[in-house]
Design goal:
Number of strands: 0
Shape: globular
Strand content: under 5%
Oligomer: single chain
Structural class: mainly alpha
Number of helices: 10
Radius of gyration: 14 Å
């Protein structure tokens, strides 16, 4: 199976989606399912999964969240991001989802139709401690059923 973009960009893509999720939830106060719904509806998910380098590596996760919200709602004023030393569960969820999408080649829309973002977040325990391939196996199992 051919991936939409080279593995060299994967780590940055994971960071972008992880940070987008964290910023949207904690700073912009969006529910995790809502921000991913907007991510899909605005077309940014499609651009991300198709390897649009402007989205993958041309902007930060904070910028991506702002673009998604601005396009979806018209909001143009945003709070400054709060940076913490630790990564949140929501960061992990976005980070892991980016990897799974890349590895599986399923669209974000297809994945999130089978399992909502808030249910993926519930996989944080114990999967954040495991190799990412364990998470991928679990996601594939869920999606098949």
């Amino acid at each position: 199976m051919t991936n939409a973009y080279d593995k060299i960009y994967l780590e940055k893509a994971q960071t972008v989606l992880g940070r987008m999720t964290d910023y949207a939830v904690y700073d912009l106060e969006y529910a995790i399912d809502e921000i991913f719904d907007l991510f899909i509806k605005t077309g940014y998910a499609k651009r991300f999964e198709n390897g649009d380098y402007q989205v993958l590596v041309g902007m930060s996760g904070v910028e991506l969240a702002r673009h998604v919200v601005e396009e979806a709602t018209g909001q143009t004023e945003f709070c400054k991001p709060k940076y913490t030393m630790n990564r949140s569960e929501e960061y992990w969820m976005g980070w892991a989802l980016a990897y799974y999408q890349w590895k599986s080649n399923f669209s974000f829309e297809y994945i999130l139709d089978k399992i909502c973002a808030s249910d993926i977040l519930k996989l944080y325990m114990p999967y954040h401690e495991m190799d990412i391939r364990e998470f991928c196996d679990k996601m594939s199992e869920i999606i098949k059923n």
